[in-house]
User: Fold this.
Amino acid sequence: MSSELSEKTVDALLDKLSSDDGFRAQFQKSPRQALASLGHEPAADRAVEAGSWDCMEVSALASKEAIQASRDEIRKQMLTAQASAIPIALEASRK
Assistant:
């Protein structure tokens, strides 16, 4: 089963991250559970323990406004064939 996100899931994820405080809190606590709540099957499959789930961790999520302002670029990155090898910038910068 592929762990790549569908367009529908990417759109739902970006919608929620740019507007829903409850979802943002869930995503910061457990990106896997948050993605499963959007219907992403690999996230819901508890038999899959390794791979991309090992590195899914968020310490400082970018603001709703920053995600909204960068939405098109983030969406493009998430939907490219190389997305699994390219880090997606959803975290706030650490200055």
Notes: The two ends are 38 Å apart (CA to CA). The helical segments are 7-17, 21-29, 31-37, 41-44, 64-69, 71-79.
